[in-house]
Every structure is written in C-alpha cells, then in structure tokens.
Amino acid sequence: MALSYLVIGGNGFLGRHVIDQIRQRKDGSTITVFDITKPAEPDTDVTYLVGDLRKYEDVLQAMTGITAVIHTASPPHVNSSNPPRDLYFSINVDGTKNVIKACQDAGVHVLVVTSSGSVISTGEPMVNVDESTPYPPEAIDVYTESKIECEKVVLAANGIKQVHTCTIRPSAIFGPGDRQLIPGMLEVCQRGQHRFQIGNNSSLMDFTYVGNIAFAHVLAAEKLAADPNSPVGGQAFNLTNGTPVPF
Ligand code: NAD
Asked: Which CATH superfamily is domain 4-246 in?
C-alpha cells in the first residue's frame, strides 16, 4: 500500500530500520524523516527535515503531504540516580501531544508510536504476560513513567478527528546500528565490572531483533491506513522474539 510516511526520529537506531522496512515493501511509498539531528549518511530516496518535537510549528510543517506517521523519537534511557525528568516528559509526553495535534490539524489519519515493554514492568520477571496486563501502580523509573504517559495520550487520541493510533512496545532491542544495548555491555566489560553477579541468574529479559520491531510498525501503519475501523486502533502491542532469556 503506497503511503507517504513521516518517520519521526528516523535518524535513530530503530528509525533507520523502519525506513528499511518501508523501502523493502517496494509499493511506491515515500519517506520523510523528521529528526532533531542531521543524518550521518543521508539516503537519496529519503527527504530529511530537521526539527524539534517540542516545537509545534516544526511538527505541523513536517506533516505536509503525509498520510502516515511513525513516531520513534525519544531521549535515550539512562540509568542514573538523577534522571532527566524534564527532558523525558517534554519530549515523550509534550512532544507526542504536538504530534497528535499536528496529525489532527493536518488531516493525517495514521499514527504509530513506539512505546516500551517497560510500561508494564513491575521490576520482577514477567512470563506469559500479554496486553491485558495493567500498568503497575508505580513505574520502574522516570523514563518509563514518561513512556506510560506518552502511551496513554496516544491511545486516548484514537478515533478523534479521524486519527487512528496504536503503540508498539519493544523491550530491549538488538541488531545493526544499536547504540545502547551492546555498547553498554561492552562499557561494563571495559570497566571490569563484569565479574559481579547480582541475583541468582533467574531474572528474565526479553531481547528483540530490530528488524522485527520495525516491521511491526509498518504493518500497524498499513492496517490502520487500510481500515480505519481496524481493531488495531487504540491498542498497544507487546513485541517479543519469543521466550525471555536469563539476564
Ligand atoms: P535512538 O536514540 O537511536 O533514536 C531516537 C531518535 O530520536 C534520534 O535520532 C534522536 O535524534 C531523535 N530525537 C530525540 N529527541 C528528538 C526531538 N526532540 N525532536 C526530534 N527528534 C528527536 O533511540 P532508539 O533506540 O532507536 O529508540 C527508538 C524508540 O524505541 C524510542 O521511543 C525508545 O524509547 C524505544 N525503545 C527503545 C529500546 C532500545 O533498546 N533501544 C527499547 C524499548 C523502547
């Protein structure tokens, strides 16, 4: 199905794989990237717009001629005793509200947003959970608090002014271009901190291949575009490669 995609955060790890997945459809779709950074190696078949999600006018301008938005942008998740709360909320919540409003004002009907598997995490291993699992009473960290709030505003917007929305929840993502997972593990090794084990090795963690997550975003966008009454609208989808592994 030929769509005019706006990939928000399209210069990031997941965003670049979303672009690859759209390209692989070979269906005549066009790709525009909206990102706060310029691409290191621009592709000739992609239009690049530099802008900040926190500025409504930037976002609205980017919607010209767009029929589907895939919003992957977020500040990176940092483990810190002093997490950047204002940054997380200004981009993940207020920035996402700008995206929703811009879709409504520009007449864009399809919006797929990257959430996180952590939104239902209790901090304990969770096996065979599904989308009926509620948000925990307290988020596991500030980043996740902002992702829960982001998800709530996206799902609540479904069907308003003919914008159809859903969210995709990856857990840890691996694959080519990863800037967090494997680099983080290597840093731990380089610091010599790999000789310590916390816990008894029974904690579980889900790792999912980035191409699968990108594919899910494109499938969701296609489904929402093909059928505005699709049950995909207003739903969050947990994404996994299969059984979680000890971590
Ligand atoms: P990334 O940092 O590689 O990419 C994020 C992109 O968003 C970057 O290109 C960045 O420049 C852009 N961006 C940030 N702030 C912006 C702003 N204000 N305006 C416009 N663009 C902005 O991150 P990623 O690993 O590709 O993650 C993509 C999405 O997946 C995020 O929503 C993240 O929360 C979610 N997620 C990632 C993981 C993971 O393991 N990487 C796990 C779960 C969920």
From this structure: NAD(P)-binding Rossmann-like Domain (3.40.50.720)
